[in-house]
Structures are given as structure tokens and as C-alpha cells.
Here is the input.
Amino acid sequence: MVGSQFTLPRRLLQRIAQVVLRPVVQGLVYSTSTADFISELTLNHVGLDRFRDLLFKILVDHAGIDLAHFKRKGAPEPLWTEITRLQQLRNRVIHRAEVVEPERAGLSVSVAEAVLGEIFPAVITHLGLHLHEGVRICNGPLCQFEGILSAELIARLQGRSVSAPDQDMHRTPQETADG
Here is the structure.
């Protein structure tokens, strides 16, 4: 049970690499086949340090986040240091069957919360996007008026109809046509 909790930071970082870094890396390379190749080389290896410098550079250049120095609230050391230590601990738990205290498992959850609650939203914002419900990425320009204008008016401005005020404001044209 405790061992499975330590896979969270690794899996989370792999998902960040897939969701955030892959499109950015591919966008920085002009040739599609070369972009795919570079993305595969840099992002498909599981070792955190294999893409550390790439991750740090992209986050600084394209999101304004210095992951080398970013600390979660109340943490004594940078988030990346915590992630690295948790990865090492996770490896000892998985490969050597070491037993760890519950506080260390709690730390992995706190680190994952910082990544999802602070880093991820900042990346999305710096890319000119925004989140709904904390997880759904959106680029709708009229979202800033939600809560100010009626759902019906926003829907009309977006060129579609809404039957209920709480209806999803971000349906695709196909979803709208399908009813």
C-alpha cells in the first residue's frame, strides 16, 4: 500500500511530460518527423534526471516557473529536490521492499498536490489557457464573463443556444449540433 503511493510523483511527472512538454518540444522543432523523434528520445525515458534540464528550460521560458528554486508552501527545500528524494525512496520501496513511515507517504501526496495545484495551473495560464473545475483546459475567450453575464448571453455570443443556465459552456460545435 505505501509503495503504491510513492509511484504518484513519478507517474505525475510522466504525465506532465506527455501533456505539457511533448507539445512544446514538438512545437520548438520544425520538422514533424524530427519533432516526434526528439520527443520520444527526451520524454519516454523514465528517469527523472534524463529530462530535468529540458523540463527546467521549458518551464522557465514558456511558463515563467523556475522549478529549480520553486518551493511549496512550508517546504524547507525546492520541489524538485523533494521529487528527486521521493523518487529515490520509491525505488527503494519497489526494488528493495524497504518499509517507510506513513509521513513519507504523506509527503508524496503533498508534492503531487503542489504539482497539480500550483505548477500545472501556472503552466496553463502562461500558455494563454485557463482551467475549469481545476482540471479541464479551456481557451474560450468569453469565460472571463461567466458569473457576470448570463449563460444564455454567453452562449449567443459563442454562436450556440443553451437550454439551462448551468449547461456546459464549452461544448464543441459538433456537440452542439448533436444536441
In short: The CA atoms of residues 10 and 84 lie 9 Å apart. The first strand starts at residue 130 and ends at 132.
